[in-house]
Amino acid sequence: MNRDMATILALTTLWTLIVAAVGAVVLWRFRRRSLRITMIVAALAPMAGALAAVLQSVRAMFISEHDSWVVLWTLAFAALLGLAMSVLLGHWITVGSRDVGRRLRHLGTSYEPTEAAGVVVPAELAALTNELEMTRKKLAASHQRERALETSRRELVAFMSHDLRTPLAGLRAVSEGLEDGVIDDVPGALRQMRSTVDRMTGLVDDLFELSRLSTAPPPRRRSAVSLRELAEDVAGENNEHARAEGVQLALSTPEDDDRLAVQGDPDELTRAVTNLVGNAIRHTTAGGTVTLTVDRELDGRVRLAVTDGCGGIPADDLERVFDVGWRGDEQRTPDAGGGGLGLAIARGVVESHDGKIAVSNVDGGCAFEIDLPPVLTK
């Protein structure tokens, strides 16, 4: 009895090893083929080994022909079921792999949403597909920002060329008039030339400041800056400008100065707030009011707001307000002040201080708000 059992086990092991070796060779030959084929081969090899081992065992144990056919039919149907499941699984994996490959081929060349494969894929391939879709969205957003920056740079070159061409033409005309002796009011002509040069210097300074902010220089040494005192200084410097434009400049700050301190560069912050106030004064109609407000939010951040009476900004232009060269009108008028860089510089300064700047329409005008982190106290 033990000898018969040993013989059956030996034959079963031998046929199993033979079929396994043949399956391994076939699998090796198909290693560069489709994953679906390799999965079918991998599923058929153990089934064939089981069938061969059972067939030899049935013959060795002299089981009746009826019982032998029952066992073989059962194994055959089990093999067919396993084959069908392996084909289905291979189909899912193949379709999912092709979908991943298709997304990879389009990644970086096409930023349009890619249609899904339309079949259920394993969780690993689904997770990989989701990561590729997130990467596509990030690349699309980056591509959109790059196109917007390129458009902004082109507009800046065109706008600054226009803004510099007009005063240069004026300087040339005045200098030729002085050279030909056709200008009687020489001191007035010199004052006009000085004013034109000052305006051109302001444009160049704005370009330099914008370039410095865009190149992300090493962080400077920063100190505690009182936004209350800064707002008072800016209001004092712009009072004459507001009075000349027929605009009232109002200041609203709380008495508690310690709660309104931020960590930053006082010169940069002063320039940013000055740009906002000057822009508000220029666009507020005569008889209107520009209000400079400083307070503290509930979350502890310090808020500075400049509210004007410009009549509001069209909804389509709210997202472009801080773009380089944007002025809100189609015609370039250098005499209106600035080259359309003031708001872009203000945004660069605020963001370099880990703050946020935004604009919204209010009753009769718009409000520019700056949120800055407060000074951290030990």
UniProtKB/TrEMBL annotation:
A GO term for molecular function: phosphorelay sensor kinase activity
Entry's transmembrane regions: 6-30, 37-58, 70-95
GO cellular component terms listed in the entry, alphabetical order: plasma membrane
Catalytic activity: ATP + protein L-histidine = ADP + protein N-phospho-L-histidine
EC number, UniProt record: 2.7.13.3
InterPro entries for the chain: HATPase_C_sf (IPR036890), HATPase_dom (IPR003594), His_kinase_dom (IPR005467), HisK_dim/P_dom (IPR003661), HisK_dim/P_sf (IPR036097), Sensor_HK_Regulatory (IPR050736), Sig_transdc_His_kin-like_C (IPR004358)
Domain Histidine kinase residues, every copy: 159-376
PROSITE patterns hit by this protein: HIS_KIN
Subcellular location: Cell membrane
Record has Nucleus as a keyword: no
Coiled-coil segments: none
Keywords: Kinase, Membrane, Phosphoprotein, Transferase, Transmembrane, Transmembrane helix, Two-component regulatory system
PANTHER family according to UniProt: HISTIDINE KINASE 1, TWO-COMPONENT HISTIDINE KINASE
Protein name: histidine kinase
Source organism of the structure: Kribbella sindirgiensis
Organism placement in taxonomy: Bacteria, Bacillati, Actinomycetota, Actinomycetes, Propionibacteriales
